């Protein structure tokens, strides 16, 4: 049940070498897994889709189960040879036989399996997470924690959002199926791809008919209740997945101001908005406090999709659990509260503000809202509704959203 059963077909040295190289970059050079995999896949343009999928899937799998695998091996790799051995341990423990390569000479299948069996009694090692995260999760989520962390260790599913500004679900389905994708319908604008393909090469993507966006993330824009003709501000827009969805909810009528402190993210959003035909989006970098003063009390709807620990999206960023620290989480909670207090002034009297995170921790979610409502700035608001989405609920990312209305 733990790792996808690796097929016992022969292993190809260049592919195993690519995985070992990627792991070395991630664990010894501290680089981000998605960037490393992108780079490794670019190195050899001759590789076909199957080879690329092999490299990505096994790299992510080993990152995900790193603690359990290294504990079973008895050491953490310090060089390329160590990462070859780590691959071998992963391959053996997923039930496949290993070829007689010298890189795998030190591995003993029986001993590895016996050691793993014994280790599975320790929750943090069994779920392959740092001890501090196990303690924090237990403290904050109590009885919900074991199911939550277990769900976060399943590989993420691929979900797209149909862009209603350009197409309806039926048209998208026909086009994607023609290209060989297999789909399952989900509520709202979402379609689940039961068979992965490179969507960015697809005609549907090029035409701006779809965006890749997790099902849980797709719940946020409708929750904002933005109506056509309103002024809506997405204050931490990033690359703009939710801005694009909001523009569709508004039928491209009104004004959508996308703000972010990182200007480069907004240039990515502008490109995406052009493709999606979302022409009501006006993106502005927050370079100083002037922009907030100019927009003071002007938004009918305000979305604060704040920076967070990202613990709700571990299944798509499994390396985050090795890069996160309790210190970082404490700092990000400070930032969240600060953003709530400072940016809430953009919401006009009678308007509504939505606070959202992709975290599962109450200290970043419900508790932040409670704390805000006790502050001077928060006394102008009241909580209307909030939603906790845990990864075990429907099998998608962990998310939180709270809608607060501002008194007239």
Structural commentary:
By secondary structure, the chain is of the alpha/beta class. It has helices at residues 13-28, 33-43, 49-64, 66-73, 80-93, 109-119, 123-126, 131-141, 145-152, 169-178, 203-206, 220-224, 241-249, 263-276, 290-294, 320-323, 326-343, 366-374, 391-394; strands at residues 158-162, 183-185, 190-193, 210-212, 231-234, 255-260, 281-285, 299-305, 347-357, 381-389, 399-406. The strands form 2 sheets. It has a 7-stranded mixed β-sheet with strand order 7-6-5-8-9-11-10, with helices on both faces. The radius of gyration is 23 Å and the shape is globular.
Labels describing this entry:
408 residues; alpha/beta; four-stranded antiparallel beta sheet; 19 helices; 44% helix
Computed structural class:
alpha/beta
What general form does the structure show?
Answer: globular
Please report the number of helical segments.
Answer: 19
Widest sheet: strand order?
7-6-5-8-9-11-10
Following the backbone from N to C, one meets helices and strands in this order, namely HHHHHHHHHEHEEHEHEHEHEHEHHEHEHE
Radius of gyration, in angstroms, nearest whole number: 23 Å
**CA distance, first residue to last residue:** 54 Å
Give the uncertain stretches in residue-range form.
Answer: 1-8
Strand content is: 15-25%
> How many strands, what sense, and barrel or not for the largest sheet?
7 strands, mixed
Helix content: 40-55%
**How many beta-strand runs?**
11
């Amino acid at each position: 049940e733990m790792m996808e059963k690796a097929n016992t077909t022969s292993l190809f040295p260049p592919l195993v070498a690519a995985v070992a190289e990627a792991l070395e970059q991630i664990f010894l050079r501290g680089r981000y897994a998605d960037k490393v995999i992108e780079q490794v896949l670019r190195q050899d343009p001759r590789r076909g889709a199957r080879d690329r999928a092999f490299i990505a899937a096994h790299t992510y799998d080993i990152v995900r189960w790193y603690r359990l695998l290294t504990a079973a091996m008895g050491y953490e790799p310090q060089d390329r040879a160590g990462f070859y051995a780590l691959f071998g341990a992963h391959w053996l423990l997923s039930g496949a036989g290993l070829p007689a390569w010298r890189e795998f000479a030190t591995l003993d299948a029986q001993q590895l399996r016996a050691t793993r069996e014994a280790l599975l009694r320790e929750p943090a090692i069994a779920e392959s997470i740092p001890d501090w995260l196990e303690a924090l999760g237990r403290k904050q989520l109590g009885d919900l924690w074991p199911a939550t962390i277990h769900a976060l260790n399943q590989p993420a599913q691929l979900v797209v959002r149909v862009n209603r500004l350009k197409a309806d679900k039926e048209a998208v389905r026909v086009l994607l199926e023609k290209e060989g994708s297999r789909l399952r319908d989900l509520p709202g604008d979402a379609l689940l791809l039961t068979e992965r393909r490179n969507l960015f090469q697809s005609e549907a993507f090029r035409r701006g008919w779809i965006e890749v966006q997790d099902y849980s993330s797709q719940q946020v824009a409708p929750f904002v209740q933005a109506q056509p003709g309103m002024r809506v501000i997405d204050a931490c827009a990033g690359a703009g997945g939710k801005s694009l969805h909001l523009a569709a909810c508004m039928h491209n009528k009104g004004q959508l101001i996308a703000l972010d402190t990182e200007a480069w993210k907004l240039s990515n959003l502008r490109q995406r908005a052009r493709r999606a035909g979302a022409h009501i989006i006006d993106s502005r970098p927050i370079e100083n406090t002037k922009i907030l003063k100019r927009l003071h009390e002007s938004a009918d709807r305000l979305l604060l999709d704040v920076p967070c620990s990202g613990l709700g999206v571990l299944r798509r960023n499994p390396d985050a659990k090795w890069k996160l620290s309790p210190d970082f989480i404490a700092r990000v909670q400070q930032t969240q509260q600060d953003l709530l207090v400072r940016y809430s002034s953009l919401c006009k009297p009678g308007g509504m503000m939505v606070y959202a995170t992709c975290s599962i921790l109450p200290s970043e979610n419900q508790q932040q809202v409670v704390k805000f409502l006790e502050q001077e700035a928060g006394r102008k608001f009241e909580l209307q509704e909030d939603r906790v989405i845990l990864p075990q609920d429907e099998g998608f990312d962990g998310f939180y959203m709270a809608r607060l209305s501002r008194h007239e």
